[in-house]
Amino acid sequence: MAVRFRNCAVIGLVALVVTAGWAESSGGEDVAVREEGSFPHLFLGGGEYVMARAPAGDSWMAVVFGTGNQTVRSPITLVASWNRTIAGAEVHDAAGKLTNRSRPVTVRALLVHRLASIIEFNDSNGDGIGGVAVSDAPVAGDQLLASEPVHKAVSLRQYWTRGPVEESTRTENGTAVKDIAFDLSASDLDYIVVGNRSSTNASPGDGRLNLLRFSFHIRVFSKSSTVGVPFYNVSLPAAGAQPAAAARLPDRTFNMTTWSARVKVDHLIEGWDFDPANGMPRLLLESGTSFTWAAAPSAAPWMDAAFVQKTLGGGGTASYQEDSGQEVTASAADEGLRPGEAPPEAKEMPRKAAERELRLEDNWERCGWLTWTSDVGLFENASAPASTGRAFFQVQGARRASIATDRGTYAGLLLLGGLSYPGAWRVVHDPELGVDMGNVDIPWFGPPENHPPVAHISSPTEGKEYRASDSIRLDGTACSDADGDPLSYSWTEGTKLLGNSSIISRKFSEGRHRVSLTIHDGRGGYDSASVNFTVKKESTPGSGPAATALAFLFAAALAAAWRRRS
What we know:
The protein has helices at about 305-310, 545-565; strands at about 25, 35-40, 45-55, 60-65, 75-90, 100-120, 130-135, 145, 150-155, 160, 165-170, 175-190, 210-235, 245-270, 280-295, 315-320, 325-330, 350, 355-360, 365-370, 375-380, 385-390, 390-405, 410-420, 425-430, 430-440, 465, 470-475, 490-495, 495-500, 505, 510-520, 525-535. It is mainly β. It folds into 2 domains: about 25-90 and about 105-170 and about 185-220 and about 260-440; about 450-565, Immunoglobulins (Immunoglobulin-like, Sandwich). The chain starts with about 25 loop residues before the first strand and ends with a helix. The relative contact order is 0.16. Residues about 1-30 and about 550-555 have low confidence and may be disordered.
């Protein structure tokens, strides 16, 4: 029997807005391109990032982490974003006329897994999980409920030191695989009081957590398959109106290309100073997982939250099996879910997961999952041999998510939980987050009298280099429409809108830039094109190759004149 979560907790997220171009890239048109640099401030609070990005399309997986340049440092966050086709539609107008025989219903999906804090608690009832409920406030805030003693915590909003990034490409069973690996570490971390529940800010020993290290192993590959896609008969009552209902049609078969990412995260917690009064110590690595979406740039106005969530059931679900064997499912379409900002309640105490997997799905396919092993490595001191303990995953529950951005609202499901470990001087564990970023190739079969426009960027040309002082001309006048329909233009970089004219001019900051142009013909047809270019640092006057050549010629002329005088 499926049980829906109600009145549960939420992860704290800030506005999801990308306002800058990405930074350094490893280059190469293989299965993935590695990028790293400063994450846009308004996207999950900013910080630094290491990213694996699909060489085509707009699918990516990134690890974002806090730096010393932030006033409020970011926690460690794994985030994936991609365009996802959740259904197809036959669209009819108010008169019953078929206006589109095969319209893809596409959304922009966002999966976020955040590592928030580590909490020391007393497992007084011996069930292996922490009786702790929190809100979206930081762990040091007052919005915390506990049914078991809580002693102290360490926030993962730290200044993380990143080790070197190792990158390799290999072939596995005939499939190209890209591996990206690196470490994040922080040492001598202060303990903090947890809300109004703990009364001490230190404990015997040195009073600090000696070492935290997270080793990330990102593995990405691409695969193709043939899938059955849900189809619906959609009738629009009037121009601009929302469909009252959508009748389910037989599934249709299409090709799907899936860009898959697996992120294994090895944890090492070393030197925790447990309170001597804690007779049954355990550590809770608190984590939050969200699965949300926004309307894709190509979406029709009627493809809004009400249609996707209520009519198609495509808002996202999370499911797992309880320790009792009961299957539990939380759905974003459940109107009984509380809003994310509400404080925790006593009935929000967590549940233990029996299976070693948490599944995230849309209306017809699994998109993401979190897996873990029950065995955890334990060391009582630096010289002690390893022993094995039991790790458990606990789920506090779900809440409704609605996150406003400058390009639309991300809506879906937010889930709070964590991994519970036995107390030891050193704890070692290795859970994995997986994401399948699949997009179905549904051909656009509109009415015979309309043909989609063709987008083309005349300027800048691919790979061109500019100076920071240059006003760069973005020219889309070569775009065309076979039906002669007037076109609307939208220039963007990431999710930042640059302009709405066929030609715009503007300056860009130093670095690599990827600008996209999307055009619409006003009758449902659209197309996009993108171009990459680089803005270089300005040369200092009197330097550079030209200045060097002039200086050489001048010196040669002086030498020749001197010889003639001699």
